[in-house]
Amino acid sequence: xxxxxxxxxxxxxxxxxxxxxxxxxxxxxxxxxxxxxxxxxxxxxxxxxxxxxxxxxxxxxxxxxxxxxxxxxxxxxxxxxxxxxxxxxxxxxxxxxxxxxxxxxxxxxxxxxxxxxxxxxxxxxxxxxxxxxxxxxxxxxxxxxxxxxxxxxxxxxxxxxxxxxxxxxxxxxxxxxxxxxxxxxxxxxxxxxx
Length: 194
What we know:
Blueprint: H1 2-21, E1 54-60, E2 66-75, E3 80-87, E4 94-101, E5 106-113, E6 118-125, E7 130-135, E8 145-152, E9 158-165, E10 173-182
Antiparallel strand pairs: 1-2, 1-10, 2-3, 3-4, 4-5, 5-6, 6-7, 7-8, 8-9, 9-10
């Protein structure tokens, strides 16, 4: 009796061993592996603002005293640029998200800061600089349009010059002028792509 049970087990053993060596089928809810499709944001138009990506010390143009730190990163597989603006000695930090909108052949930027301010800008690359314009009312509610021009420098810096109009864009006056220089010791972040 023991011998016949043992013999039956030995006869069944090769079937069990070969069944265990077979790969298991994937679970029913497991999708087959497919590589991620390339980002739709790798064309030249989506790269027009990539010169601004980096870790920056910001000064008033022509000055040497650092007034802010700004971290600009490429995000979402190169489909957006995120800004984190941190002024030194002030509480009003803020940031923006910028992206190219193919249907408009234009760039859009939304700015929000810790004072509650919010502004929307639209524009594009003019061949030498990124120019973005939009309404940004003063805290007292008076209407104002702001035009920002971001110009890459040959030395790796970026100049951001702001102008304001209080007459619906007929005349413009300078409102700010910053120079972004790479933060020493921080490796630049590559513009993301897939």
